Amino acid sequence: MPARTVSSLEDLSLAIPKIFDQAQVSIANHQKNYVALYKLHNDAAKHTEPINKGKTMKYVGEKIFQDVMVDMISRLLPLKKGTTVADRIIKFLGGYVKFANEKVLEDRKKSGAEVHEDTDTPASRFATRLLKFLLKGFLAKDKNVRYRVVQILSEVVQHMPELDEDLYSHIRESLLDRLRDKEAFVRVQAVVGLAQLYGTEDPADLEDDQLPVSEILLNTLAYDSSADVRRAVLLNTQINPVTLPNVLARTRDTDIVVRRLVYTVLENHCIPPDEAASGALGATDPRVLSIAQRELIVRNGLGDREPSVRSATAKLICTWLEVVGLQVEGDEPAKEVISFLRLFDLAENAIAEDALMSVFASRTDIFDNVEFGDQYWADLSPEKSFLARVFVDHCISIKDEARLESALPVVTLLAFRIQAMYNDLMEQMQDDEEQAFLRGEEEDEEERARKEDERMDKEFVIGEMLRLAVNLDYADEIGRRKMFQLVRDMISQEALPEGLLSRCLDVLRKLSPNERDLIRLVVEVVHELRDPEMDEKEASAVDDGDTTTYGETPMTAKTVKAAPKPPTEKTPEEKAQADAIDLRCLSLCIGMLERVNGTFEENSTLEGILGELIIPAVKRKELALREKGLVSLGLCCLIARRMALNSFQLFLSQVQSAPEPLKIRVLQIIFDMLMVHDRDFLGNDGVAGDRIIEFLLQVWGNEDSEKVQALMCVGIAKLMLSGMVTDERVLKSLVFAYVSPDTAGNQELRQCLSYFFPVYCYSSPANQRRMQQIFVPIFEELLQLYKDLDDDREMISPANIVAMFVDWTDPQKAVAARGQVADVLIHLDLATEIIRALFSKDMQKEDKKVLCQVLSKLYIPDAVDDDKIRSLKVLMYNLTSRRPLRDTAASNAFTRFDAAISKKFEKQLEDFNEEQYRQLESLKELFEFLDDIIPESDEEEEVPKKRTTRKRRSQSVASTTTTTTDRESSVAPSVDSRRGGKGKAKKRARLSGETDTDSNATEQPSRSPSAAPAPSRVMPARSARAKAKSKAVAQATSEDEEDDDDESTPEPATRKRGGQRSSKAAKKKEEEARLDAEIDGLLDEDEPDSIMDSDEGEADEVGELLEAE
């Protein structure tokens, strides 16, 4: 018997691998292998040994079984993510743990034993051993091992009925550690594992500094940088009122899949899977959600730029319709849709309209079966009127004439319905006023709110029917006259709600033959409202005495009205009534002017209300009247060029002193006027345009209101994008506003500019060129702003700023438009400007490193003009020889770019002679810039220790690749090699302030072909230093003046000899005396190349320097 036991246990090492071999092939045989493996497990569990005198048992067989299983599992741990066989084995392990635990419970039930989930069984002991083994791999260095152990643990834990408390704590802490793993796929599995602990955790058992797993997962959902991790949290988060706001926030996620997954998760939780028959509501049932949450889902989903997200949202909305329709009696689609519309606030925004349009597009069966019979129009509710209007709009959008014809009511019928509803509204408003007057403040708040809701519902129904009336067919003359007279009477009444005014004007615009008739009608209504007691004969008199019928163009009428009562004689009630009427008349004028496209001169009728109503309103002190008066005047200016020119200064003056609401309206008027009359205000002369732009920028810079800042940003961006404004100051201001820490909280401004800059740059090569030209100065200013930033404020880093400019100026991203040629040399010129900026001593090495590292990201085309590429090469060589980069990373990046340029344009750089290149007039500015660069003192420290014979060196930089080694092994000459003779070179060196050793030393032997000399200075170094330091230079007319000038000029750093001692006072005096003597000798000689040739030449040079000052 013992021999048989040993034999059966030894067979485990052969039998278990066979089961794993089958399980890794296909998941179809997993169930069969569960049974086989469980049988082996049970057989092994029977082999035990008593210990401690039989008090306890040693599970010998189980240990061997567990060892073999752990050995098999260890073999798959190093396998990478995506290995199919490993994923099948892991799934098999989780399934086996579940199968074994269920089998144990089933066997105990059959045997009649007491069933407890915490009973110690072979299955639970195996799972515990497996989990402890896996926890050891959580800190492995190999990312694949960490991934596999977390994956297996997450799979096994979800099938465990119960865990030991210590083991549970260990697993929880280990998973939280892996939630901060640097590898995203490891964090994904950690999320899956923590989700299994979601419902088992009791917040009361947590310590004070411990967060619940649910809160940790929600933080991960909001802040993890990996989209895969956020998707894992979405899929494994329980939807409830606590987690729902965090889930809805992901509708604005940056990842498309995450956004689409949100709507899929919401759809899956609309109907509870187990309680659908009982009538329980799902976690995301639309009736459970608030109106704000429903509108958020529809607005973000249907407004998403990705079609897949919009499709998922439409599917969710259709599910809402089905869920709500289950409670509706009957099979009429209209009733189902009406119940669906009750989920939204129809009067607030267009969210409900977008949702209903989505239903019509997705559910064609509902669109085809909706009917609008006579009974439908008899009792209109807000939902019914809204459905009819949106249905008609949808038919028009898809050009379904048949359905449109069947849905539209008869004009006369609709007119009577509108009239009846309007009369009910007026009666209710009158009754409410009477009740309020009689009761005073005794009316209950709930009753008052109920009446207000009823009034708003009736007003909404009238508005929807008026919107529907715009699309009616007015071929029926009787119906047209009825509708016209009805709407005309409505706008003539003071009690007409403000919200219905624009709807009535839309109908009148539809019914009016032309704009002049519409204007005449509105002017008549204005006069009737302001002078209700005027007699017809006194109201107007036509010159020819004829009556003008409707549809004809009236002659200009002369208004003959009685003198109004002076304001001083009016009572306060009369003044308030007059102001209310003026506000209504101004609203009518605004609505009418918004619908007029002709010029002011073509509609002379407008002159009357301009002088009688609009101008007096502008002069009023009451904010409401002045605001509407300014808006009306602004609309008049849009159709009257001369009036715009005369009134523009008025609007500018209102900007500075007006309160925020009025300032916003005035700025909108100003930008509209600039857009319409751009040639008059922003014309080619540039004087008026510059003043306007300067004023706007000043107002923008001094403004504290975020709304006003955002409005000005939008307006200025529109002017820039349309090409009306091309001033670089404006572009700089926009860039500053985009990256400034002061606008970090102004999301509207940031959103506008994040859209503006790519569109502006990619739409035109000229815009990219303009952006490239402002890069260096604005980068230097932003660097200073970044350095002066307080610790508690945040700003975009210089590296990100440079990356944005490189992206905006990329010529490969410019849109190919007809008539535009891409400027492929923008990045080449940008590289030139960057290298010029690297010459600056004021720029820190960290900032230079940022600029150097971006050079390799620039697009340099294959075909480049010789002058441009050689100019770039000269700049790069002079940078390494005169202003070498001290930072290793910056130097390496610059060297790589230099080598790439030298290799790419090797043929163009062959036989390049700098001496001949200096003769080109077009490159004069480049060499003046280089000649003004003073080499750093470190470059002057290395000198030849012994004289050598002068050798003529080539000035070619064709094959020069500037490296750190070249700088260390060579010395950039400070003497122009074009000057013949040692004497001249020596004098130039002395005037540059060098030591005696430097002056007498001849040039070094020519270097290797890979290291060419730096370009020599045309201007003496003394003058260059004076110019660089911005010191006044006096004209040298005598020896004494020259001596004084030399004494007043700071001594440049001298080169150090190997045996030279530290400078002392006596040594310094001797050196100064020697230099003075040598300078005196130079002044006595007559050298044609010397700057001391004549007073006239020196005066010219000093004049140039003073001009540069």
Automatic annotation (TrEMBL):
Bias kind Acidic residues: ranges: 1038-1049, 1078-1109
- Record-annotated Nuclear condensin complex subunit 3 C-terminal domain positions: 584-860
Report the subcellular localization. Chromosome
The similarity annotation says: Belongs to the CND3 (condensin subunit 3) family.
One short Pfam name that applies is: Cnd3
InterPro entries documented for this protein: ARM-like (IPR011989), ARM-type_fold (IPR016024), CND3 (IPR027165), Cnd3_C (IPR025977)
In this chain, composition skew of type Basic and acidic residues spans 567-576, 1068-1077
Q: Name one GO biological process term.
A: cell division
What is the protein name for this chain? Answer: Nuclear condensin complex subunit 3 C-terminal domain-containing protein
Q: Which UniProt keywords apply?
A: Cell cycle, Cell division, Chromosome, DNA condensation, Mitosis
Superkingdom is Eukaryota
Q: Which GO terms describe its cellular component?
A: condensed chromosome; condensin complex
The Basic residues compositionally biased stretches are: 980-990, 1055-1067
Composition bias, Low complexity: 553-563, 1005-1023
Residue ranges of region Disordered?
534-576, 938-1109
Q: Where mainly found? A: nucleus
Annotated organism of origin: Neolentinus lepideus HHB14362 ss-1
